[in-house]
Protein 1
Amino acid sequence: MNYKFQLKLSILVLAGVLVSFWVSAQSITASLDPTDFVRMPAAASWRDTEGLGGSYREASGNRSIDGNETHKYDISATSANLHLKFSNVSFDAGIGQWANSITTEQQQNIPMLLDQSIGRISLSLLGNEFVSIGLGAWENNRHEYQDATEDNLNITESAIVGSISVRVFDFLYLGGGYERVKEESDGRVENNWNNALIGASAMFGEPGGTRLRLEYSHLNSPRAESDSQGSSKESIHREIQTNSYAAELMLNGLLFVGRGSEEKMFFKDPKTIPPSTKEYDVLTLTSNEAGVLWVPENGIVLGFFFTTTKTSFAFEDEISEFRINVGYIFE
């Protein structure tokens, strides 16, 4: 594998994690933050409110290789979502848009992600306040710059999703989910793989009072390869393991939120990226965010978040983000 393709993979992983913070750590139960939409459909059944929400974020950062800065990032993103409940049926939908402006400090003819958009929709059914089953779908469209000799590349990932969340005790929830993912892109063979997620969540307190929500989940995305056919190039999805967590505390209408994730991408054989001489076989990406929101029983929701993201490989990417969340809870 060459230098160009390795860097391309790292950028795609970085973009994926930035988008994942629109939906992270809501796999078993739904966040107390009504401006977020869920990662797995079944989680929506445990939400107490109906409403709509949105966010605007700005981020900046840089890439360095062997201590030398090679690129600067200037990122903006928006998202919007809707939550509705009909008796024991919950409906969730959301969209997000991400754009990256890149300044090159050292000229390198390598691929870069220019922009992407994501859309999600899900439906869940709650049975006897004991078990939730959900179905959903999502689509992620990416637009990449290749180099001066190639056209920009369009990539579409789509998935159908199924998940379950079971209330074991009054406060403890266990669950899991499955995604069947399809990837299509210009000039490449279609690729398919399955993502599997398991997790646990704990919720204490009652609506309108002091509340605490905790969650941990693990996502396994195995390696998948499609061989080249005719003029279409091979397609490779590398194994990815992701651990996500969340802690939320509601006090007198103020919601304090902490979330994080660690994602590891595994290469089948160790690789070297010039000018480094060390071999690398695991790309690690960590993200952490903290925020506070005003969340009334009904009416306007308002808050802000700070996020840091770091990629460690033969290079280092560091990005800092500020986000504003706004929403409205229906009566």
Protein 2
Amino acid sequence: MNTSHFFRYCCLVMVTIFSSNLWADWPIKCDRRQTKCEIETNRLTIDDYVAVLNSNDILIAWGTVTDFKGSVRQIRIKKRFGRILKSHRAIRIDDNKTSDIEKNFKVFRKRKKSFVLTGVGVASLGIGKGLAAATAEASGYWYWKKGFYYVGRIYGLSGSSTAGYIDSELLDAEISLSSFGLVGGIGSTYKFSEQVFLISDFSLGVGVVTGKTSAPVDFAAIVDNRVVPGTSPTIVGMSRLTYDLKPIMLWFGFWGMTVSNVFAPGLGLGMGFEL
């Protein structure tokens, strides 16, 4: 073997050893209770310690190899901090790190059971020449049971437009509307990943509407009684795609709500925090 061939052979051996030790990770499959899992590899033996990590290298669970059959290793999960997903991977824990595993990894922390979201947006009320209203809201979510929350929300909206009324004398009359309300209901969450999840809720309550117009007629008349100033029941449905930065959350979403006799769809964005 000449020198160049020998040098190439040594490099291949070093790369193989180096990569097998530092970048060895494997997909993991678990039972429904997530106490027993399987890994397909020949690099683990009985009593080896295994860490389950998410895409951000955060520790989701850890356990030990208890048995093997062929290339399949059976893992007994000793401690779990969150739900193990298909996107997670397993790695071998170095022997010098097994005495205090949780100090050698960033450990996953579950979202707290209660949180608050605030935001701003825009809603279309479909009166006048397409009146669009600016909105602001704050919502509290209190844990009820797995995946479900009690929801309380306070909101406000305000907008103006021209009447666009068929009567030429009222065509350019200005109209303005404002409303605020308080609603409560039930919400649920659906998790796409450790940081991304969908929050949807449905709530009922009461809203107060005020309306003004520059025309010499009643506000309700100029909008064909679609919005009647005063107090009325309100229904709100909302879905938000949320990115969890722990403890801060960012969200973008859409909703539909009733304002008097009008259904108003809207879009919004905002942020929140855990309680």
